[in-house]
Amino acid sequence: MLSWSHAVLYVQTLQPMLAFYCEVLGFLITDRGPLAEGAPEIVFLSQDPEAHHQLAMVATRRDTKPSNSVNHFAFRVAEFNALQGFHEKLKAISAITINPLSHGNTLSLYFNDPEGNGIELFWETPWHVAQPQGKPWDPSLTEADALAWLQETFGNEPSFEPLADYQARRRATGQ
User: CA-CA distance, 137 to 152, in Å (whole number)?
Assistant: First the structure.
């Protein structure tokens, strides 16, 4: 079985991207240096002390249009209030447009980084809901109100069930 390790982004300008990922999203620079003698610098970033890097950036991108080869990168937060904290940080950045969207199994914030790469920050809900689907949600809700909204909004879906039941069934069937 594969497990996710990292992604490498080609960026136009390192400094604004590093500032955004470090100051807004909370990554730390773990290493940096030229790829080879005379080659561009690569910068490694991580939030996980167990992972040398979760992202890396190399300033070799020439295209000034938003990236179109990847729709978005998704990052999980462990706590609902962390998602709300990111929402407050992102709202304070005038160039960022936030799209709060729930898939039933997540409460998500979709937005773009300074070079137009799509990002999703999400909190996993305690339920499974078949995909694809999405409905706008209000990030100002309390956690209890957000969970009540989720049950009201997605509870009549035929696939709506506790996440633990869905995961147990997948483990039992090997899928």
Answer: 12
